Amino acid sequence: MNISVITVGKLKEKYLRSGIDEYKKRLSAYAKIHEIEVADEKAPEHLSEEDMRIVKKKEGERILGKMDADTYVIALAIEGKMKTSEQLAKSIEQLGTYGKSKIAFVIGGSLGLSDDVYARADELLSFSKMTFPHQLMKLVLLEQVYRSFRINRGEPYHK
C-alpha cells in the first residue's frame, strides 16, 4: 500500500519533525509512506472572503497536482466523519482489499482546503471539532495510521 500525506507548508518545528520521522519509520514495515509538502500561499492576517478563496484555490491546485487519478483521497476536515481508531483501521483494510492501494490524506493550510480539493476527496475525515495546527495534525494522523496497521495485524498497541 502507498500512503501519501499531503500538507500545505513546510514543517519547521524540530519536535514535530522528530515525531513524524519516528512514525514514518515505524510505518515503513507496513506501507510506503510519502510525505508531500506543497508551498503555502503568502497572505496577510486579515483577508476578505474573496482573497481567502483565491489563496485556498492556489494551494488546492498544488495539492491536486500531487495525486494520481486512481488515488483514494481522504481530506481532513472539521466537518468530516469522526471515526474510532478501530473504524479507521477497518477503512484502511477495506481500501486495500478492494484494490485501492494508493491513499492520500490531505491536510490543508491555515485557511483550510479549497472547494476543488473537497470535490476531489472520496472521504472527509475529522479527528475533532477543535482546530489544530496542520503540522501537529500530520503527527497525529501518522500515529493513527500506524495504529491502524497494528490493529489490522492483531499486533499489540496502547489502548
3D architecture notes:
The chain is an alpha/beta fold and 159 residues long. It has a single domain, classed as SPOUT methyltransferase, trefoil knot domain (Alpha/beta knot, 3-Layer(aba) Sandwich). The protein is 43% helix and 22% strand. It is built from 5 helices and 5 strands. It has helices spanning 14-27, 49-64, 85-97, 115-120, 134-152, and strands at 2-8, 32-38, 72-82, 102-107, 123-126. Strands 2-1-4-3-5 form a 5-stranded parallel sheet. Helix 1 runs parallel beside helix 5 and helix 3 crosses helix 5 (134-152). The radius of gyration is 15 Å and the shape is globular. The model has no long low-confidence stretch (mean pLDDT 94). Its EC number is 2.1.1.177. Keywords: Cytoplasm, Methyltransferase, rRNA processing, S-adenosyl-L-methionine, Transferase. It comes from Alkalicoccobacillus plakortidis. S-adenosyl-L-methionine binds at residues 76, 108, 127-132. It is found in: Cytoplasm.
